[in-house]
Amino acid sequence: MRAWTVTAQDDDVRLSDVPEPVLRGGGVLVEVLAAHLPAYTRAVVQGNRGGLPVPLTLGPSCVGRVIDVAPDVFHLEPGDIVLDTALLDAGGGDEVLVGWVGLGGSGAGSERTDRMRAVWRDGVFAEKALCAKETLVKLPGAESYPDPARLAFLPWLGIAAAGLHAAGPAAGRDVAVIGATGQLGGAAVLTALAEGAATVTAVGRNEDALGRLAALDPRVRTHRLTGDRATDAAGIGPVDVAVDTLGAAPSADATMAAYDSLRGRGTLVLVGGVRQDLAVPYGDLMHRRLTLRGSWMSDQRTVTTVWNLVRSGVLDLSAVELRTTGLDDPAAALGLAERTTGLGFVALVPGPA
Ligand SMILES: NC(=O)c1ccc[n+]([C@@H]2O[C@H](COP(=O)([O-])OP(=O)(O)OC[C@H]3O[C@@H](n4cnc5c(N)ncnc54)[C@H](OP(=O)(O)O)[C@@H]3O)[C@@H](O)[C@H]2O)c1
């Protein structure tokens, strides 16, 4: 079958002919229907986000149709439509993302995560994938969803929803999304609206993308980042919840502006890829009874919640601009993904050989 592989740390992603995966204990064989291609996939392949366990078939998450299940798999059967979250959790902080970078806990990995990655290494940018049963969530009713490629956005919605839920229910509260012009930020805006936020302040640099978000719903406000912390805090808040979904920004100023914008008892949730330390003022956090939370990936319950929002039409995925690509030209596809943010995303649709 055809798959996107990476053979060494300094190698590019390549289209390769590889043997079809063979079913084994704890595994589920799926036909990949569509896989989200994150905007920063090229940076991942270039090693800028930690080491990939090479050689491997790349790809963290997808929507697929179950072809076959191992004898010890009971929650799925052939024909089911599933979401692969990539998250394999052995407990105690030992978590890996199959087919991708990123380790849970301290992020340093352990002898146990090495063993997990040795057994479950290959991802989903391929015609078929063998997935660990723990990574799969059933999507009841998805067989009749009119546009399955669009469902490849569900993993990002799940990650955004997990971040939002870390601050408690959104209903009736004022929520800000920092980095709302990115794919994860757009997902957070859609989820907050679907879950009944009173207002959603979309914060980012890209004016066009902010305009598209404003057009979604009268509850959306926008703030264009100025780079000045005090000005940005005043433009963002006051809010009850701020969710930071920024990419690898070179400073923590926008994140700290979000912190400053919180009302008393408010919560700032960190979900993004900022690689900076935060200087959080002890007395201010204490006196204003603020909460600072982190959120990584999603869990099966949250994925099911998000799927139910989509399935019921409360969260309408037609608001998201879908661009599809096949397996033929990985370099062009990664370029397209890099350029596609702001309520848009690229789905890899492997299709038949
Ligand atoms: N916690 C988790 O479980 C989890 C899961 C998946 C991803 N992530 C992280 O989430 C981050 C965002 O992912 P994504 O898919 O949304 O990526 P994306 O579509 O590329 O979005 C990146 C966002 O960051 C903004 N940004 C980048 N550099 C900036 C800067 N210097 N100053 C201000 N804003 C800046 C972009 O603003 P513009 O639109 O103005 O360029 C955009 O809003 C990634 O870095 C990733 O590491 C975390």
Any key phrases for this structure?
353 residues; alpha/beta; Quinone Oxidoreductase, Chain A, domain 1; Rossmann fold; 7-stranded mixed sheet; 6-stranded parallel sheet; 10 helices; binds NADP nicotinamide-adenine-dinucleotide phosphate
Task: Walk me through this protein's architecture.
By secondary structure, this protein is an alpha/beta fold. The protein has two domains: 2-156 and 298-348, Alpha-Beta Complex (Quinone Oxidoreductase, Chain A, domain 1), CATH 3.90.180; 167-294, Rossmann fold (3-Layer(aba) Sandwich), CATH 3.40.50. 26% of the residues lie in helices and 26% in strands. It is built from ten helices and 18 strands. It has helices at 41-45, 111-119, 154-165, 183-194, 207-214, 229-236, 253-260, 282-287, 300-312, 330-339; strands at residues 2-6, 14-17, 27-37, 56-57, 62-69, 81-84, 87-89, 95-97, 128-132, 136-138, 174-178, 199-204, 220-224, 239-244, 262-270, 291-294, 321-325, 344-348. Strands 3, 5, 6, 9, 10, 17 and 18 form a seven-stranded mixed sheet that branches. A six-stranded parallel sheet has the order 13-12-11-14-15-16, with helices on both faces. A three-stranded antiparallel sheet has the order 2-1-4, with no helix packed on it. Helix 3 crosses helix 4 (183-194) and helix 6 (229-236) packs across helix 7 (253-260). The longest helix has 13 residues, at 300-312. The chain is globular. The mean pLDDT is 96. NADP nicotinamide-adenine-dinucleotide phosphate is lined by residues 38-40, 159, 179, 181-185, 204-206, 209, 225, 245-250, 254, 271-273, 295-297, 341-342. Residues 184-310 form the Alcohol dehydrogenase-like C-terminal domain. GO terms for molecular function: metal ion binding; oxidoreductase activity.
